[in-house]
Specification:
Elements (H helix, E strand, L loop, with lengths): L8 E12 L5 E12 L9 E5 L37 E5 L31 H15 L6 E5 L1 H12 L6 E5 L7 H16 L15 H15 L2 H7 L19 H13 L5 H13 L20 E7 L7 H13 L4 E6 L13 H13 L2
Helix pairs in contact: 1-2, 3-4, 3-7, 4-6
């Protein structure tokens, strides 16, 4: 790995395969987009992997190249912050199946010369982790100081500890779960149906024409509701009406909350691929760490020496605190070292992405205790 220590160095690499997938298919080679912050120390022991959520990407702490907006976790990563490039070599990888440089449905299928579209193989969270491991092999990183993630990133952190226990010194799992509930799956299915109902989706073969932006925007709007809390929405918007001159697509947005959700949908379609949304939400729905290990969650951690830190938020109804407690109980049953805290925040599931000084203190203390 290069000693270039420029902050937020965007990288891309093609890795030889084959990468065998849980669904039985394989990819002959994979592209991986990633970003690094800081440098490896002499014994290559200071690497921290940051795992992003469903609609995230590798640009965790630098401005996004498409939107120009700040990285999605600049509150966590940076000088003097819990994940500090002065102490850590930080790596954030665009997941397999996504659309920001890693192989996914929009990538060219070498067998046909056109985009995979819905011919892309089914993927799982564990497949994403295996692809990440291939990149770390390529970079010469045998073991991670820590793997950290929130939401779907937390699923990856758990899967790392279960799949490669010898390669993970510590895992920080924030606002996450060991498996999707029926309610989680139901919300995702609403979003997928919105995408597929858009005439422009064309069975997934839209890459030579117009993308199904209307359907994807609705999917984003529906999902975004689950990331917030009722108290947070009430505090921010209540039932306040828009100014009379305010307009939006379709019917006028009478309420401020309507305008907010429509803005979330419109801006999302500029940076995300609809088919990637279908594949990644399905991977999240398939995730069941207990099922992968004989039906008992504790067995996923039987061989681990990883230290765990779990954080939940009291207003998160997407992955409520009981989901984190179930993981803690399984870790206790497996004899794994674990710390757990439920934090108070009015912002629901999205709390881990927003200003949360208590979370930063918890993560900082946990990481320093292992250094």
């Amino acid at each position: 790995m290069s000693d270039d220590n420029r902050f937020g160095l965007a990288r891309h690499v093609r890795l030889p395969g084959p990468l065998a997938l849980d669904g039985g298919a394989s990819l002959a080679a994979i592209d991986v987009g990633y970003e690094t912050y800081g440098t490896l120390n002499a014994d290559r022991s200071n690497a921290i992997l940051i795992c992003h959520a469903l609609t995230g990407d590798q640009h965790a702490a630098s401005n996004h190249p498409r939107t120009g907006k700040p990285g999605w976790w600049q509150r966590m990563i940076g000088p003097g912050k819990p994940v500090d490039p002065a102490r850590h070599c930080v790596i954030c990888i665009n997941v397999l199946g996504s659309c920001m440089g890693s192989t996914g449905p929009a990538s060219v299928d070498p067998d046909t010369g056109s985009a995979y579209a819905m011919r892309f193989p089914v993927i799982t969270i564990r497949d994403m982790v295996r692809a990440q491991a291939l990149l770390l092999d390529h970079l010469g990183i045998p073991r991670l100081r820590a793997v950290i993630g929130g939401s779907m990133g937390g699923m990856q952190a758990l899967s790392w500890a279960a799949t490669f226990p010898e390669r993970v010194q510590a895992a920080v799992v924030i606002a996450s779960t060991a498996r999707h509930s029926a309610q989680n799956i139901a919300f995702h299915e609403v979003g997928r149906q919105a995408v597929m109902a858009d005439p422009r989706w064309a069975g997934g073969d839209y890459y030579d024409g117009d993308a199904p932006t209307a359907g994807l925007a609705v999917a984003r709007m529906a999902a975004h509701i689950t990331y917030l809390s009722e108290a947070g929405l009430t505090h921010k918007f209540g039932r306040r009406l828009q100014a009379r001159e305010a307009k939006s697509f379709g019917f006028d947005a009478d309420f401020q909350v309507e305008s907010y959700l429509r803005h979330q949908g419109i801006t999302f379609v500029d940076r995300f691929d609809a088919n990637s949304y279908l594949y990644i939400t399905r991977a999240m729905d398939y995730f069941d760490l207990a099922e992968e290990h004989g039906g008992r969650l504790a067995d996923a951690f039987r061989r681990t020496a990883t230290r765990f830190c779990l954080v939940s938020f009291d207003t998160d109804w997407l992955y409520p605190t009981r989901e984190s407690r179930a993981i803690v109980q399984a870790l206790n049953a497996a004899g794994a070292p674990v710390s757990f805290v439920e934090l108070s925040s009015p912002f629901g599931h999205d709390s881990f992405l927003l200003d949360a000084p208590e979370m930063n203190r918890v993560v900082d203390g946990f990481l320093r205790a292992g250094e």
